[in-house]
Design a protein that fits this description.
The strands form three sheets. This protein has a seven-stranded mixed beta sheet with strand order 2-1-3-4-5-12-11, sandwiched between helices. By secondary structure, it is α/β, with parallel strands linked by helices. Strand 6, helix 6 and strand 7 form a beta-alpha-beta unit. About 45% of the residues lie in helices and about 15% in strands. It has two domains: about 150 residues, Rossmann fold (3-Layer(aba) Sandwich); about 160 residues, 3-Layer(aba) Sandwich (Rossmann fold). The protein is built from 13 helices and 13 strands.
C-alpha cells in the first residue's frame, strides 16, 4: 500500500513539474502594439509586459509606429527568439502574413483590442464591448442635449466623425452610437451637418472616417466643416470616436468665433489624462473608460491558460454570442471573442478611472483637486 501511495505522489509531482515547465521564466510572450502617438497603446504595451512578467513569463514589447510592415518584422523577430505566444494590437489586415507565420511555428496568437481581419489562423480576440462603447457615446450626446425632451421645431445640430477605416473597432463604435442617435434624427430633433452614413457599410462612412486615428486629419476635417457644411449652423454636438480626435476637433472649434463662449457636446474614448482635464474644465463633454489594465491582465490570463492547456475561463469577461458574435467576425470566419465592459465618464464621475489607479499620483491629484 505504501508503495502505491509513493508511486502516486511521484506521479503527481511529475505532473506538477511538467505543468510548471509550460510557464517557466524562459517562455517568451511577444507583445506587438501598433503605435505610440495614441497614449493608450504605450500604457497597454507596458501593462501587458508587466503582467506577463508577474506571472512568470519572459516578455518583450515592441511598438510599430503605425507601420504594418514594421510590425510584421517585429512579430518575425519574436518568433525567431522562440516566442510561444503573441499578443498583437494590429494596424491593418496586412498583419495576416505574420499571423500565418506564427501559425506555422505553432505559436498562440491573441488579437488584442483590434480584430485581425482576413484570416482565422488564430483562435482568440480579447477586447471591450465596442458596440457598447458607441452606445455610451451616443447616449452621452442624448443626455448632454436632453434630446428626449427635444422637438423638431428647434432641432439640434451634430457632425459625425469615425475612427480609422482599417480598424474594425471603428465600425462598432460608430454603429453603437448611431443606433442610439438615429431615432432622434428620424424624428427631426437632431440634424446632421456634413456626410451622414446610417451604417458603417455605406460609402459615406469613408467620408467621416479618420485614417490612422490621426489628430491632424480630424482637425483639418473639422476646419473644413466649419467653413463648409456646418457654416450656416452652430453645432450642438460632435460625435468623436476617441479622445485624441476629440481634442483635435475642440482645437478647431476654439478657433471659430461661434464657439468661443460655448463648445458643442464632444465625445471621446480612452480616458486620456488631457481629455479628463478637458472634461473637468468644461470643454470635452465625455469619454469612455476602458480599464486597459484589466484588459492587459485578462489577455495574459488568457495566454497563460492557452499555453498551459487549461480551460479558458477569464474573470471579468463574457464570450461574445448572439448579435455580439459579429464583433469576432474576421471576414473569413469567426474567432472566439472575450469582452470586457466599458464605462462612460463625465464631470460627474471623474473619480472612476482615478480610483482604478489608471493615472499617476500627480495626474490623479490634478484631476481630483
Amino acid at each position: 500500500m505504501r508503495k502505491i501511495v509513493a508511486i502516486l505522489i511521484v506521479l503527481l509531482l511529475a505532473a506538477s513539474f511538467f505543468a510548471g515547465c509550460k510557464r517557466d521564466a524562459g517562455t517568451l510572450i511577444g507583445i506587438a502594439m501598433p503605435e505610440t502617438h495614441v497614449l493608450r497603446w504605450v500604457k497597454d504595451g507596458n501593462s501587458l509586459r508587466d503582467e506577463a512578467v508577474t506571472r512568470g513569463y519572459r516578455a518583450e514589447v515592441q511598438w510599430a509606429d503605425a507601420d504594418q510592415r514594421i510590425q510584421n518584422q517585429q512579430v518575425s523577430s519574436f518568433l525567431t527568439q522562440g516566442a510561444k505566444a503573441l499578443i498583437i494590437g494590429n494596424i491593418n489586415d496586412g498583419v495576416g502574413s505574420a499571423v500565418a507565420e506564427a501559425s506555422r511555428e505553432g505559436a498562440i496568437v491573441i488579437a488584442y483590442d483590434r480584430i485581425i481581419q482576413g484570416t482565422h489562423d488564430y483562435g482568440y480576440y480579447i477586447t471591450f464591448n465596442n458596440y457598447k462603447v458607441g452606445q455610451l457615446q451616443g447616449q452621452s450626446i442624448v443626455d448632454g442635449l436632453n434630446l428626449d425632451a427635444g422637438t423638431a421645431a428647434s432641432p439640434r445640430h451634430i457632425a459625425l466623425f469615425a475612427g480609422s477605416p482599417t480598424d474594425a473597432n471603428a465600425n462598432f463604435f460608430f454603429q453603437g452610437a448611431m443606433d442610439v442617435l438615429l431615432p432622434h434624427i428620424e424624428r427631426g430633433v437632431l440634424t446632421v451637418a456634413g456626410p451622414f452614413p446610417r451604417h458603417y457599410s455605406e460609402p459615406a462612412f469613408q467620408q467621416i472616417a479618420t485614417e490612422g486615428w490621426r489628430a491632424d486629419i480630424a482637425k483639418a476635417r473639422m476646419e473644413g466643416l466649419l467653413i463648409g457644411d456646418a457654416r450656416a449652423v452652430v453645432l450642438d454636438a460632435v460625435l468623436a470616436p476617441n479622445d485624441t480626435l476629440g481634442r483635435a476637433i475642440i482645437e478647431a472649434l476654439r478657433a471659430d468665433a461661434r464657439y468661443h463662449a460655448r463648445l458643442p457636446v464632444v465625445t471621446g474614448q480612452d480616458a486620456e489624462f488631457d481629455s479628463i482635464m478637458s472634461i473637468k474644465n468644461g470643454e470635452q463633454y465625455s469619454t469612455v473608460f476602458k480599464d486597459t489594465a484589466l484588459l492587459a491582465a485578462a489577455a495574459i490570463i488568457l495566454a497563460d491558460q492557452l499555453l498551459s492547456g487549461t480551460a479558458v475561463d477569464v474573470p471579468g469577461t463574457i464570450l461574445a454570442e448572439g448579435e455580439l458574435s459579429e464583433i469576432g467576425f474576421t471576414g473569413t470566419g469567426y474567432v472566439n471573442t472575450l469582452l470586457l465592459d466599458p464605462i462612460l465618464i463625465t464631470r460627474d464621475n471623474l473619480n472612476v478611472p482615478v480610483d482604478a489607479g489608471f493615472f499617476s499620483e500627480d495626474e490623479a491629484a490634478q484631476i481630483m483637486r
